[in-house]
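Run log // design_07
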C-alpha cells in the first residue's frame, strides 16, 4: 500500500487518491525529488525556454511571410509561452482552455473532473498538486494553445527543428539500417523459418532501442543515434527486462500460415518519436510486409506537436521524403518503397485527437469509441514508447509484479505489445524480486532509458 504524504491544504486529500493500490503517480508524492516532480520543475521550463527561443529565431521568417502581422504573432506566442512558464514554476491553478479547437471541450471537462476530486471546494487543481500524466499532457496542450492563439503563425511547430536535427544527426545509423533492410529484402526468399524469425527479432530490438532517442527526457536537448545500432544489439540484450518477442512471432507466423482463410493480416503501430525512432518503425513495418508476416500496416500519429519529439503527419511525410532523397541509392529506395506503400494503401496513417488528450487508454472505449473500433480491426497493435506505456497502465504506482493484463484495466481492443524503454517510475509484469534487485543495484533504473521491454497482452 502506498500512502501519499501530500495532504491538500483545503480538502485534506491529495488528488492522486493514493489510498488504494495502484494510485496515480502524483507530482507531490513524495513532495520533491521524484522523477515526476523534476520533469515539471526542471525539464518543462527548459523545454518552454527552447520553444520561446525557436520562435525568436524565426522572427525574420515570420516577417517575410506575413509582414508586420507575423511579427506581432511571434510576440504574442512568446508572451503566452512565458506566461505558461511562470504559471507552472509558481504552482498557479490550472486554468481552462479558451481557444476553440477539436478537443477544447474534452479537455475542459477533464479539468472539471480534476476539480471535482478536490471535494467541491473552491480550491483549483495546481501544477504541483495534481497527477503527473494530467499535468504533463496539459502543459503540451497549452503550448499548442499559445501557438493557435497567434495567427497567422498558428501552424508553426515549435519542435520541428529539434525533430529534424535528430534525423540528420542519426543519418549514419539510418543509412546502415536502410542498407541492412535492402540486403534482407534480396535474400528473404532463401531464409529458413528460424532465420526469418531472427531477422524479425533484430528489427524489433532496433525499434525498441530507437525509443531511447526522445527529446522530452533530454529537455529538448539533442538525443540522436550516432552509432550503428545493428552492431550493439547483442550487448543490449541483458537490458531487456520483459521479453515477449516469441509471442509476437507465433501470432504473426500463425496468421501467415492461415492466410488462405483470412486474407489480411493487419498490424497497427501507435507511433512515438519522429527522427531516428520513426525510421526504425518504418523499417520494421517494411519488413513485416515483404516477409509476408503482415499485409497491411496502420500507423497512428499525433495531431499536434507533442512531448517535443512525437510524430505528426508532417513529420511522417517529411521523414519519408528525406529518406527518398538520400544520396545512397539503397537508402533512397527505402523512401521510394515507403511512399508507394502509402499510395497503394498498404500503409495507412491515422490521426485522432484522443492521443493528445488527458485520458488513459482504458477510457478510450467511452471517450473515443471510433478509435477503439478501429484498433479492434488489428491482429496486433504495437504501442511504441514510454508515454504510451504510462497511458496503457494508467500511470499508476503499481507493484512491479502486477500482471500487465490487470494494469491495462479493461483495455483490450486486440492483442497488443508495448515496446518501450523505461523513462518513468512505472513497470509491471516483472518476476518477483526483479524490480527490488534492480532498485538496490541501480536506483535510477526506471528512468534513464537504459532498460527496455516487449510486453505482450493477448490470447496465446
Ligand atoms: O517527460 C518525461 C516523459 O513523460 C517520460 O515519461 C518519458 O521520458 C518521455 O516523457 C516520453 O517518452 P517517450 O517519447 O518514450 O514516450
Ligand atoms: Mg515521445
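design_07 sequence
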Amino acid at each position: 500500500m502506498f500512502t501519499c504524504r501530500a495532504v491538500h491544504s483545503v480538502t485534506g486529500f491529495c488528488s492522486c487518491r493514493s489510498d488504494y493500490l495502484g494510485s496515480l503517480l502524483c507530482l507531490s508524492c513524495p513532495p520533491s525529488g521524484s522523477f515526476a516532480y523534476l520533469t515539471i520543475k526542471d525539464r518543462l521550463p527548459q523545454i518552454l525556454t527552447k520553444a520561446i527561443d525557436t520562435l525568436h529565431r524565426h522572427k525574420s521568417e515570420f516577417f517575410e511571410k506575413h509582414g508586420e502581422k507575423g511579427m506581432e504573432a511571434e510576440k504574442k506566442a512568446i508572451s503566452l509561452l512565458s506566461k505558461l512558464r511562470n504559471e507552472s514554476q509558481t504552482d498557479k491553478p490550472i486554468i481552462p482552455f479558451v481557444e476553440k479547437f477539436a478537443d477544447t471541450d474534452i479537455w475542459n471537462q477533464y479539468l472539471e473532473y480534476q476539480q471535482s476530486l478536490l471535494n467541491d471546494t473552491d480550491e483549483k487543481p495546481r501544477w504541483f498538486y495534481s497527477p503527473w500524466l494530467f499535468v504533463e499532457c496539459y502543459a503540451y496542450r497549452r503550448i499548442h494553445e499559445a501557438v493557435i492563439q497567434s495567427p497567422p503563425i498558428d501552424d508553426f511547430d515549435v519542435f520541428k527543428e529539434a525533430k529534424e536535427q535528430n534525423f540528420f544527426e542519426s543519418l549514419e545509423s539510418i543509412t546502415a539500417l536502410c542498407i541492412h533492410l535492402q540486403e534482407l529484402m534480396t535474400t528473404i526468399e532463401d531464409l529458413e523459418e528460424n532465420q526469418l524469425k531472427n531477422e524479425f527479432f533484430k528489427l524489433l530490438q532496433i525499434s525498441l532501442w530507437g525509443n531511447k532517442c526522445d527529446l522530452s527526457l533530454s529537455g529538448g536537448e539533442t538525443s540522436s543515434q550516432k552509432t550503428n545500432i545493428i552492431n550493439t544489439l547483442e550487448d543490449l540484450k541483458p537490458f531487456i527486462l520483459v521479453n515477449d518477442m516469441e509471442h509476437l512471432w507465433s501470432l504473426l507466423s500463425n496468421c501467415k500460415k492461415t492466410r488462405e482463410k483470412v486474407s489480411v493480416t493487419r498490424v497497427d503501430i501507435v507511433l512515438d518519436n519522429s527522427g531516428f525512432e520513426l525510421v526504425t518503425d518504418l523499417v520494421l513495418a517494411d519488413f513485416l510486409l515483404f516477409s509476408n508476416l503482415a499485409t497491411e500496416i496502420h500507423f497512428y500519429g499525433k495531431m499536434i506537436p507533442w512531448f517535443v519529439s512525437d510524430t505528426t503527419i508532417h513529420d511522417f511525410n517529411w521523414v519519408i521524403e528525406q529518406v527518398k532523397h538520400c544520396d545512397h541509392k539503397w537508402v533512397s529506395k527505402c523512401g521510394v518503397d515507403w511512399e508507394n506503400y502509402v499510395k497503394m494503401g498498404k500503409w495507412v496513417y491515422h490521426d485522432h485527437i484522443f492521443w493528445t488528450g488527458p485520458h488513459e487508454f482504458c477510457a478510450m472505449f467511452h471517450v473515443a469509441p471510433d478509435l477503439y473500433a478501429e484498433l479492434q480491426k488489428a491482429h496486433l497493435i504495437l504501442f511504441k514508447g514510454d508515454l504510451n506505456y504510462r497511458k496503457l497502465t494508467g500511470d499508476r504506482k503499481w507493484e512491479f509484479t502486477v500482471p500487465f493484463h490487470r494494469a491495462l484495466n479493461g483495455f483490450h481492443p486486440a492483442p497488443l505489445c508495448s515496446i518501450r524503454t523505461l523513462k518513468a517510475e512505472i513497470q509491471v509484469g516483472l518476476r518477483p524480486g526483479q524490480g527490488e534487485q534492480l532498485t538496490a543495484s541501480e536506483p535510477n533504473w526506471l528512468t534513464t532509458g537504459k532498460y527496455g521491454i516487449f510486453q505482450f497482452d493477448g490470447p496465446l
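DSSP finds 18 helices and seven strands in the chain.
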